[in-house]
Fold:
Amino acid sequence: MTEWDIKKLRILRTLRDRGTVTATAEALLMTPSAVSQQLTNLSKQLGVRLLEAQGRRVRLTDAAHLVLRHAEAVFAQLERADAELDGYLRGEAGRVRVAAFSTAVPALVVPAVRHLRTAHPRLDVRIREAEAAEAYELLAAGEVDLALSLAAHAPSARDSRFGRVPLLADPLDVALPAGHPLADAPGLRLADLAAEPWIYGGSGPWSEITTAACEAAGFVPEQAHSAAGWTAILAMVEAGMGIALVPRMASAERRGGGGAGGVGGVGGVVMRVLSADQPRRHVVAAVRGGAEEGPAVSRVLTALRRAAAERETVQQN
Structure:
């Protein structure tokens, strides 16, 4: 295969544009003899004659013009590569792979991606839904660059493999069947619900969060039913089969109200804000140690912080 030397091709292009070896040498900060030597070497590499004498000057042969027609396409592609690499180095281009648990995707990740598509359209964010524990496994294995998970399920802060960034303290509201005796009770507390049948997952972070919140209120919840998806949980609550703690991120799209007074509803379910107890789950973003300093990952983290701040503002109003 013919060897194409980009540096020598640039000299040939400059000679075409400047017209003389002397002008080419001045433009490229070279000596005329160095220009001539480089072009002689290029001619040998390509196996064609590139220059011919024309009086006291030289002119490009037809073969030289053919070579330059193809070289121009190479130069244009290199310019695009330089621009893309520059964007990558400034965090405006490249790909960032994100793993996130289900309720964080619509509440935090999608708003962040919408912002990034406007502010940095060449930054490609790829989303992968994953359970909290799996998100860290994917991060450790190098299959994703950033993981959204829950602090309750995160590795120790002393684990040097990861850098953690707090994003959001997501309030937990209690879902009651419409018509429940405590559905509109003033100042509802978790302790008032100690005797109720509860619905939550059989294992994992959500089971731990529910039991920890109830134990902090002075009781151990009786698990009547086990479910992991919010659609199934709320359907059982609506049917009067039990009650459940629901993160506000999960219920926000379903809520029909519920301001400071603490009552909201969706279908046959009443969502009550537990303002006296204020249980919360803490959402964190994690990266491999030191990766938060990478410009592309840093931009995604900034967009996630922005989405989290906007979410907290909405929750407080």
About this structure: The chain is about 45% helix and 20% strand. The longest helix spans residues 62-89. Residues 256-261 have pLDDT under 50 and may be disordered.
